[in-house]
Amino acid sequence: MNSKLWGLVDSAGVWLAKSYGFPAMTGRVLGWLLVCDPPEQTAADLAEALGASAGAISGATNTLVRYGLAERLRVRGERMDRFRLRPEAWDAQLRDQSEAATARGLIAQGLDALADEPPERRRRLEELDAFYAFWAERIPQLWPEWDAYRRRHLAQLRKADKPHEKHPKRTGAPRERTD
Questions:
Q1: Please, are residues 147 and 155 in contact by the beta-carbon 8 Å criterion?
Q2: How many CB atoms within 10 Å of residue 177?
Q3: Which pLDDT tens digit goes with each residue over 98-119?
Q4: Angle CA 71–72–76, to nearest 5
Q5: Sign of CA dihedral 106, 112, 113, 118
């Protein structure tokens, strides 16, 4: 793997660790699965590419599969599993409102427990409930807009894709590493 790819893979590990509390290796596996060729990788492929132990790869892939970001594939006639990113995994994560419903149930339980307490004590839960209510109302309305945007954006990229042509510059400042 060249140094630019390793930079991406390692940055994905740092990002997932800082942003979501996952082990850095889980982020590295996610980063590698975004760019590897072929897109399906065995645990041995992942370990070799990332210079990681079998145990670290097993933990990372299990986490990614459990969270619905990657999938485990079994190829007929092979003894080992392969892993790849789930197609449209990001959409599925946001479309799944079950976690929001669970959170709202917990919030309702907390509000019930604090029913006789001063309003100041209930405010944090009420604010959180308001956020989840807003999210549940708005997110379904955004899907048609996202689908249209994705089609346009990907069509532009495919139209511009020519051998050895770089993709347009992405906006947004890279995160600074502090490790």
A1: no
A2: 11
A3: 778 888 999 999 999 999 999 9
A4: 135
A5: positive
**What does the CA dihedral 101, 102, 105, 109 come to, rounded to 10 degrees?**
-160
Identify whether the C-beta of residue 28 lies closer than 8 Å to the C-beta of residue 9. yes
Report the alpha-carbon distance of residue 30 to residue 43 in Å, rounded: 13
Q: What is the pLDDT of residues 85-98, one digit of tens each?
A: 988 887 777 777 77
CATH class of 3-87: mainly alpha
Cis peptide before 144 (omega within 30 of 0): no
Ramachandran category for residue 8: left, alpha or beta (phi over 0 → left; psi -120 to 50 → alpha):
alpha
